[in-house]
Specification:
It is a single chain. By secondary structure, this protein is an alpha/beta fold. Helices cover about 35% and strands about 25% of the residues. The chain has an 8-stranded mixed β-sheet, sandwiched between helices. Strand 15 and strand 16 form a beta hairpin. The longest helix has 25 residues. The protein binds adenosine-5'-diphosphate (ADP), aspartic acid and magnesium ion (MG).
């Protein structure tokens, strides 16, 4: 008998009919003799609806209260799925994150799981029940409800797989696997059979929202093989696993994109030691994460400094930067929140030169201007004007031979 963790995302549980269809899938797995823990998201659109409600009441709700609100979405789904299972004659029990002791730190809205006490789940499994767990939520050490950030149900599922030492972890969603690019943008994208944790981690952190970044980190740390599968059709999906030799032959495994960032520039700052920390120190102190950074020479004695932040943090970062500009006697500040980041990811890049020039040439041919560049061993990212996002992604997808032409 194997222990399988199944995770169903928002679209998969988006209506009563779909919840019943999920119950049937759970029953089918059980009929094969497996023990099952099912981790579910809120019904599609529910988390956004709750967020909008909170904004009607208050412009900036306290993060603690927001978590109390947002966690209710998943609580609805666990109850409905358990009821649907019971109605089909299958013993089931639902638990919130707190009830199964998913302990997190106290960073509301983007908490990290620190520990899971799997005792209660194990007891229910031994009693022959299907255990249904609310994703995306936990409690901190003072018993406050926390949430794990958008897409956090993936992380709950993988963390549960680690805590219970599960045999398999299946992520059911509205696509039939991880693709070489977002299939909503690139119709010629191809499903990837196997991908290494490291590549998937880059894809996720560069914008491929099919898996939350933290879930891939967990999977890699605890060596859990994850499979991304479609809820709606049969198939093998994509296996995310440790790197092996056959994978390394692939030069580029995918193109990721991200529309969530904004760019800020402070012009004409003195080109002296310590200036970067004078600029970025106050941004960090406001808990704003900085992604890409470039500094270029203005004139002989001054420099221009540009960096990107999440779009949600754009206004706050701009206000801080305006203050810094005054203090430093800078020429001025500029900003642009209509940018997009496009990235080429592949383990094979480690041993191949020339990918960057190929990438830049392809973009130039389409008249796409590159505003910023950053590289690592296995990825190259560029920032471009938002209006070129689709064209840029499709161009690179075909440049690197990823198009499915059949
Ligand atoms: P769920 O609600 O099941 O968690 P998500 O919407 O979070 O589903 O993730 C699935 C979506 O991720 C797909 O519908 C797809 O548009 C998007 N996506 C982005 N990049 C990729 C990719 N490289 N491969 C597959 N899906 C991707
Ligand atoms: N319901 C949450 C969200 O919409 C968590 C999840 O679905 O993974 O982000
Ligand atoms: Mg998701």
């Amino acid at each position: 008998m194997s222990l399988i963790i199944q995770k169903y995302g928002g679209t998969s549980v988006g209506s009563v009919e779909r919840i019943q269809a999920v119950a049937d899938k759970v029953l089918a797995a059980r009929a094969k003799g497996h023990q099952l823990v099912v981790v579910v998201s809120a019904m599609s659109g529910e988390t956004d609806r709750l967020l909008a409600l909170s904004r009607e009441v208050c412009e900036q709700p306290r993060p603690r209260e927001l978590d109390v609100l947002l966690s209710t979405g998943e609580q609805v789904t666990i109850a409905l799925l358990s009821m649907a299972l019971e109605a089909k004659g299958c013993a089931a029990v639902s638990f919130t994150g707190g009830q199964v002791c998913i302990l997190t730190d106290n960073v509301h809205n983007k908490a990290r799981i620190t520990n899971i006490d799997a005792e209660r789940v194990s007891t229910s499994l031994k009693e022959g029940k299907v255990v249904v767990i609310a994703g995306f939520q936990g409690i901190d050490e003072n018993g406050n409800i926390t949430t794990l950030g958008r897409g956090g149900t993936d992380t709950t599922a993988v963390a549960m797989a680690a805590a219970l030492n599960a045999d398999e972890c299946h992520i059911y969603t509205d696509v039939d696997g991880v693709y070489t690019a977002d299939p909503r943008i690139v119709s010629k994208a191809q499903r990837i059979d196997r991908i290494a944790y490291e590549e998937m981690l880059e894809m996720a952190s560069l914008g491929s929202k099919v898996l939350q970044i933290r879930s891939v980190e967990f999977a890699s740390k605890y060596n859990i093989s994850l499979r991304v599968l479609s809820t709606f059709e049969d198939g093998l999906g994509t296996l995310i696993t440790a790197e092996d030799e056959s994978m390394e032959q692939v030069l580029i495994s995918g193109i990721a994109h991200n529309r969530d960032e904004a760019k800020l520039t402070i012009r004409g700052v003195p080109d002296t030691p310590g200036i970067a920390s004078r600029i970025l120190g106050p941004i960090a102190a406001a808990n704003i994460e900085v992604d890409m950074i470039i500094q270029d020479i203005g004139d002989e004695k001054s420099a221009n400094f540009t960096f990107t932040v999440h779009r949600n943090d754009y206004q706050t970062a701009m206000t801080i930067l305006e203050g810094t500009a005054k203090e430093l006697g800078a020429e001025g500040v500029d900003g642009d929140d209509r940018i997009a980041k496009i990235s080429v990811v592949g383990l094979g890049m480690r041993s191949h030169a020339g990918i960057a020039s190929q990438m830049f040439a392809a973009l130039a041919e389409e008249g796409i201007n590159i505003q910023m560049i950053s590289t690592s061993e296995i990825k190259i990212s560029v920032v471009v004007d938002d209006k070129y996002l689709e064209l840029g992604v499709r161009t690179l997808h075909s440049t690197f031979g990823l198009d499915n032409d059949s």
